[in-house]
Amino acid sequence: MVPSLTPYGLTCELLEEPLGLGEPRPRLSWRMASGARGEAPAAYRLRVAARPEDLDDPARLLWDTDLVEPPETPYVRYDGPPLQSGARYHWRVSLWDATGAPAGEATSWFETGLLHADDWSAAWIGPDPALVAVADPPRDDDRTERTRPLAPCPLLRRAFRVEGAVARARVYVTARGLYELSVNGRRVGDHELAPGWTDYHERLPYQVHDVTELLREGENVIGATLADGWWSGYVGFDARRQALHYGTAPQFLAQLVVDHADGSRRVVATDGAWRTGQGPVVYSDLLMGERHDARLAATGWDAPGFDDRGWAPAAVLDRDLSALTAATDRPVRVVAELPAVSVAPRGDDRHIADLGQNMVGRVRLTLRGLRRGASVRLRHAEMLDDGELYLDNLRTAEATDHYVAAGEPVEVFEPRFTVHGFRYVEISGVPGPLRAEDVTGVVLMSDTPAAGEFHCSDPMVTQLQANIVWGQRGNFVAVPTDCPQRDERLGWLADAQVFLPTAARNADVAAFFARWMRDVVGAQDADGAFPDVAPKICVTDEGAPAWGDAGVIIPWQLYRLYGDVRVLERSYDAMAAWVEHVRRHNPDLIWRHRVGKHYGDWLQIGVETPREVLATAYFARSAQLTAQAAAVLGRKDDAAAHAELHRSIREAFVEAFVEPDGRVAGGTQTAYLLALAFDLLPGHLVPAAAGHLAADVEARGQHLTTGFLGVSLLCPVLTEHGHADLAYALLHQEDFPSWCYSIRHGATTIWERWDGWTEEGGFQSANMNSFNHYALGSVGDWLYGRVAGIDQDSGSVAYRRLLLRPTVGGRLSWARAHQETPYGRVACGWRLEDGVVAVEVSVPPGATAVLHVPTSDAAAVREGGLPVEAAEGVRVAGEWRGVLAVELASGDYAFTAPL
Ligand code: RAM
Predict the structure, then answer these.
(1) From atom 5 of ligand 1, which residue's Cα is the shortest distance away?
(2) Are residues 125 and 273 in the same domain?
């Protein structure tokens, strides 16, 4: 069988089979696989039709590109007739291989949302605000004072009749707050914490579910439970509810559209005919936790036959739908379950369960034989202190759930509208033994599909990679947050920009970040300042250097990594306005003014990188990237102006901060890293500056001093400038401060601070001590990029021109990684055995690669047993310093080389 070129991984607007698409001209994309070397698509064809069977009937096609040359970026914009509202479209991509012969094809679909304002008839509804009762706030241990009480989670229901066969039914639904939807007693969909968190003033996404199978003839019931969530709950570190930010109580909006087989349509929308009552959730809050009283269960409330005469009519609150938008991102879902690894008794009715992993989500607890009214309390912590929960670092977040039993033989409690960051859970109120299998950690995350894996021979580095992945899991929940446990959980911009390259290795985060970028752009102020956090709450200053700059860096990163030009188009004006904001207030181009909170190289250790050095370096970087973005978008004058500005900032930087011997002011690792990574030095000073950097690392006994910003550049810059040995030394360093120090002390996630816990000092100040903060995990990009070796050429986009540079070194005897890129799967790895290094790589169809084979004897390098000159798809490009560089066409290759 001839292995053929095959498309797979079809997406529309960065999502697989999106239901509820809002883009009028969505972008279609596919990845490619092939077993043959040198495969590249000669042409493709796209067809779009209303029904799958119509794809084969030329007369019924809505759009047909016919045979066209492969696109420059991996996206093709739909250019057929205008898309209808609430309609499903089927599409097929067909490929022709390098010889021009027809190759594989694949089919997918997308479905539009409600595209026009007059498609909506729903109104915002909720319990009558005057009648909402409030529960006592949680005051566990009296650790904090609450200024506002928490309200019960209301239930809403609407009974309606279905007459005749249903062909298709969709529900379009969202909430100000959080909602869980059901139809006829069955939960609809698997979204958690819907509709997620956006700047609700500007954008509130609605979700779409196919409920055709849930309806039946006769009476039907649609029901919803609401919770405060980010809308009206406690968010951030103000220790007050969100009333000041968004609203005071949750509200609901839904529209069920039922299409009958006979062509008739029935719409059931939220209005005054809905009824509202109270259920078992006494309150639920993201930071405080949830209280569930099973005695209050309104059994059968969301199914036909329930007597809702005791319920009140829902209040119609308003009809403002201006913020409604189609969802452009994947929802939060349950992505994993962790059974407890141990449950240890602590006194009469108290236990501490260990999930073995610092995680984010909630606990599912099975309870047996509790008497009616018995109360169980769950408290959550990331760490233990002397065998008991370490709670102080949660600050005012209570992170405490309560369950009041109904008295059934077996009851299962799992909170629904709260989320905690924890490894340990203390369960009080359960007399007698509690079994480990009765305690399960339920992991929630924005469902960004896994994209890559990194593996190597060293268990500590393997654990580091696991800690990075778990940091990503725990903090990619609706928005990229700094931390998941304390009263903060905000979308801090610098954390996001340093970690994005790593995140994009592990998962497909294109849609996740593109969506969040809209809140970053939306939060820009009239002067052009980006914020420190998005959605913008709690922290209202102008963005600090490196924080605000994320508004420029992230769109560029998304373009480079995914080829997403649209995110550049939509962010460009904001990027340029930010650069202009900094320039306007700093005419001498040294960024001293309008620096917001200026966090410097946040949480650097034992040193102080001069703030002006850091700020000015970022200013230069933003000007440079804005110039590049302008060039991509064809804005020639803008490109030239920003390139000129970049040159001038660079000159000012050198003038102000660089000595003739290559020393950079402050002399810290981060000062050198910024100057080198952001290309701020005249060429002749680069080796000297790199030498000063290396000398500092050596002088400190091979220890780092970098904070959030410097750390992302540390190993990459050392490696780039000939000090891979030092980068490996830092990777393997187990003394304080280092990544492995935390691992040696049991870390299963990346800590916020190098000194979160130390042998000498124990816990750092509880004021700011998260054990799940991804920023210092930005080294993950280097693990994939240089240790295993997957990178792209500096001018390449979407990994089309791969640069594969496996770096043999450190304690490793092998390392390998693979990664889904927009063109397909890339892999690169090496293994050293008896002085011979084996290098295996995969290059997807449509991409090419330059591979640096590490070797001491270029002439002895073999591919598939053949001299490289004889190997198919391989061309020798050059030879230097222990490397044989070869150019590769797509395909799988296996090299061996003496080292
Ligand atoms: C902390 C956050 C975040 C950081 C800012 C400066 O409160 O945790 O990680 O970006 O401060």
Answers:
(1) 492
(2) yes
